[in-house]
Amino acid sequence: MKKQFAVIGLGRFGGSVCRALIENGMEVLAIDRDEAKVEQFRDIATHAVIADTTDEKVLKSLGIRNFDHVIVAIGDDIQASILTTLILVELGVPHVTAKALNAYHAKVLNKVGAEKVVHPERDMGVRIAHHLISKNILDY
Ligand code: ATP
């Protein structure tokens, strides 16, 4: 059976994760509280819904506990990101990946039980630096 993914927050990061999962044949539920963002995924995601994920009742009604992996891609609203992650963990979602804006945010996300915490800008900066270093060594 195909793995079921849900992506919460369809900004540049969440939107990109969502598209890549879909392009690789995964089933994806796309969620955002912003109707315009959800509209962009209506035709490509398996399902796309407008929802505020800080409301536990809403997440329960979406059957979120049946998803194998949920990606919390809410950035700027740190409170919403933490609360959403906490609810997902409490509901028993097996794998929760959350995006952190900074080290403090990451610490709290880890504490509330996120399985994996990513910092897209920082992680990409490190990868690019490594790539540049290895390229320089090869060019030498
Ligand atoms: P990115 O840096 O990935 O481009 P962004 O700057 O567009 O993101 P963020 O503030 O990081 O926006 O939030 C990402 C998405 O999360 C937004 O589309 C926003 O509407 C959505 N979002 C924020 N809070 C909630 C919430 N409580 N429930 C559902 N979606 C939310």
Outline type: globular
Strand order of the largest sheet: 3-2-1-4-5-6
Bound molecules: adenosine-5'-triphosphate
What's the total helix number? Answer: 6
Biggest sheet statistics: 6 strands, parallel
User: Percent helix among the residues?
Assistant: 40-55%
Q: How do the helices and strands follow one another from N- to C-terminus?
A: EHEHEHEHEHEH
Low-confidence stretches: none
The average pLDDT score comes to 95
Strand content: 15-25%
The secondary-structure class comes to alpha/beta
* CA-based gyration radius: 16 Å
The tally of beta strands, per DSSP, is: 6
Distance between the termini: 49 Å
Protein name: Potassium uptake protein
GO molecular function: monoatomic cation transmembrane transporter activity
Which key phrases capture this entry?
alpha/beta; 6 helices; globular; Potassium uptake protein; monoatomic cation transmembrane transporter activity
Describe the structure concisely for a colleague.
Residues 2-118 form the RCK N-terminal domain. The protein has 140 residues and is of the alpha/beta class. It has helices at 12-23, 35-41, 56-61, 78-91, 103-112, 120-139, and strands at residues 4-8, 27-32, 47-50, 69-72, 95-99, 116-118.
Task: Provide an overview of this structure.
- The model has no long low-confidence stretch (mean pLDDT 95).
- Helix 4 runs parallel beside helix 5 (103-112).
- This protein has a six-stranded parallel β-sheet with strand order 3-2-1-4-5-6, with helices on both faces.
- By secondary structure, it is α/β, with parallel strands linked by helices.
- The termini are far apart.
- The longest helix is centred in the last third of the chain and has 20 residues, at 120-139.
- The protein contains six helices and six strands; from the N terminus they run βαβαβαβαβαβα.
- It has helices at residues 12-23, 35-41, 56-61, 78-91, 103-112, 120-139, and strands spanning 4-8, 27-32, 47-50, 69-72, 95-99, 116-118.
- Helix 5 links the parallel strand 5 (95-99) and strand 6 (116-118).
- Residues 8-14, 31-34, 37, 52-54, 73-77, 80 line the site of adenosine-5'-triphosphate.
- GO terms for molecular function: monoatomic cation transmembrane transporter activity.
- Residues 2-118 form the RCK N-terminal domain.
